Each structure stands twice: as C-alpha cells, then as structure tokens.
Amino acid sequence: MPLPAPPFNVLFICSENSIRSIMAEAILRSEGGATVRAHSADTTRATALHPAVIDLLQSNGCDVSGLHPKHMDEFRTNGAPKMDFVFTVCDQAANEECRAWPGQPMNVHWGLPDPVKVQRSEARTDVTFQETFERMRDRIRTFVNLAFDTLDRISLQHRLDDNGRKPGSDTKNCNLPRVP
C-alpha cells in the first residue's frame, strides 16, 4: 500500500489527553507546517489539560488555542478525518487493545514517562516537563524532516519505530495493529 499524499492527518494518543499527547499536537502544529494536520486524544475521557503544559507550550512558542482534551472515539465518527499516522505516547494507551483505525494508518509507539509521575522535588517538576517537551520535539522534528516520497511503508515504519527508541523512551510494545 503506498503512502498517502500530504497533508497527513496525525493523531497522538495518551491515556489522558492532558500532557504528552497535547504537547505532541501543539509541537507538530508548530513544526509541521502545511504537510500535517495534528490531533490528539485520550483513551479515558480526561476533562482538563494539566496547567503546567499550557505554560510550557506557550513559553516554547507553541500556539495553545483550541487545545482541549478529546476522546479517541471523536476520531472514529463519520466525517472525522481519516488518520494517516497514529502515535501512542504512553505505555498505558499503547498496551490497550484498540480496534483497527479506518484506512489502515501507520501505528507507532513513542512512549515517554509521565512527567507528573517522575519522582522529583517540586523544583524539578518544571525541568521534567521541559525534558519531556524536548524529547517529543526532537522526535517530531525527525518525523517532519523524513523524505516521505522516497520511503516505502515498511522503511517508514522502521524509521518511526527507531525514532521512538531514542534515549529516554519508554519502549514497551504497542498492541495497535502494525503495517503488514
């Protein structure tokens, strides 16, 4: 199956759409330009964004307008954008059994530890959020700079998987369907 033509619809999923997936959506909006449409969602129906993530995104020059928690079922309805890429960014979301997405998007796990759960002093909490942001931004920059027109689906899958295994990754396997 050939790759779709840009712009790509990209969905980031986390158990709670309040930190990592929201970061990824905002970063991809900033870094991806016209080649992507970034979205994020959760598996548990979160109700609010973590306050620190909004401050962090704004301090790093990301637009936060329109960011809010969304459940992944919003992207399975009639009229929802067909996803080209689905990234899980936490182990809980990756380890949940998810039914297949319409259109067979490429599924990738880019797990990062939850910055709220990292055992650090309160003074280090901001550092933990910033480290998570920087790791996510590095992965997204690698993603948007891939030469999509020169890669087949299998090669692209390998590149994206490798990108998720960079230092600081949470590399457990994802139960989402893989590219054949």
Descriptors for this entry?
180 residues; alpha/beta; single chain; Rossmann fold; 12% strand; four-stranded parallel sheet
Helix/strand order, N-terminal first: EHEHEHEHH
- Rg is 15 Å
Highest CATH level, the class: Alpha Beta
The tally of beta strands, per DSSP, is 4
Number of discrete domains: 1
Contiguous helical run count: 5
Envelope shape:
globular
Structural class of the helix and strand makeup?
alpha/beta
Helix content: 25-40%
Task: Let me know the largest β-sheet.
Answer: 4 strands, parallel
How would you concisely characterize the structure shown here?
The chain has a 4-stranded parallel sheet with strand order 2-1-3-4. Residues 168-180 have low confidence and may be disordered. It has 5 helices and 4 strands.
What does this 3D model show about the protein?
Mean pLDDT is 83; it is low at 168-180. The protein is α/β, with parallel strands linked by helices and 180 residues long. The protein has a single domain (8-163), classed as Response regulator (Rossmann fold, 3-Layer(aba) Sandwich). It is built from five helices and four strands. Helix 2 crosses helix 4 (122-144). The longest helix has 23 residues, at 122-144. Strands 2-1-3-4 form a four-stranded parallel beta sheet.
